[in-house]
Amino acid sequence: MAKIESIAVATVRVPLDTVTSFATRSVSARDYGLVKVRAGGVEGIGFCYAGSSGERSLRKPWSSSLRRACSAAKSLLVEGLWQRMFEETLLHGRSGSVMRHFLAELFRRLAREV
């Protein structure tokens, strides 16, 4: 079973053609998070909607605790990776977008392996 060799994280901001207003705010762009995982010479990309604060909500957690939790882990042990990330983010939200889009990529990778 391949181990995770590298994790790259990026955010993309897509401007909206029309500003959308809600009760308490206006939105002029949508942010998306992208994670590229490399394991066993295979790369895959996962993505998720990150609201309007993608930089703060996605990139920063990956720069420290979540990267350490997943680096060199066995790439197909999804439940174990989920548990590690859950423990690392316990005080920051248990099932936020960071974990969701990373796991989406792991599930895609698992589907290719089966």
Question: Briefly, what is this?
Answer:
This protein has 114 residues and is an alpha+beta fold. The protein has a single domain (4-113), classed as Enolase-like, N-terminal domain (Enolase-like, domain 1, 2-Layer Sandwich). It has helices spanning 54-62, 65-70, 78-88, 97-113, and strands spanning 4-21, 26-39, 42-49.
Keywords:
114 residues; alpha+beta; Enolase-like, domain 1; 3-stranded antiparallel sheet; 3 strands
Overall average pLDDT: 76
The helix count comes to 4
Order of helices and strands: EEEHHHH
Identify the strand order in the major beta sheet: 1-2-3
Unreliable stretches (pLDDT < 50, length at least 5) are none
Q: Tell me the structural class.
A: alpha+beta
- Radius of gyration, taken over Cα atoms and rounded to an integer in Å: 15 Å
Number of DSSP strand runs: 3
Q: Just name the CATH architecture.
A: 2-Layer Sandwich
CATH class: Alpha Beta
The 3D shape can be described as: elongated
> What count of structural domains?
1
Identify the CATH homologous superfamily: Enolase-like, N-terminal domain
Q: How is the biggest beta sheet arranged? A: 3 strands, antiparallel
End-to-end distance: 12 Å
Strand content: 35-45%
Give helix % range. 25-40%
**Which fold name fills CATH's third level, the topology?**
Enolase-like, domain 1
What do you see in this structure?
The protein is α+β, with helices and mostly antiparallel strands. It has a single domain, classed as Enolase-like, domain 1. Helices cover 38% and strands 35% of the residues. The chain is built from four helices and three strands, in the order βββαααα. The protein has helices at residues 54-62, 65-70, 78-88, 97-113, and strands spanning 4-21, 26-39, 42-49. Strands 1-2-3 form a three-stranded antiparallel beta sheet. Helix 3 (78-88) runs antiparallel to helix 4. It is elongated, with a radius of gyration of 15 Å. It starts with a strand and ends with a helix. The model has no long low-confidence stretch (mean pLDDT 76).
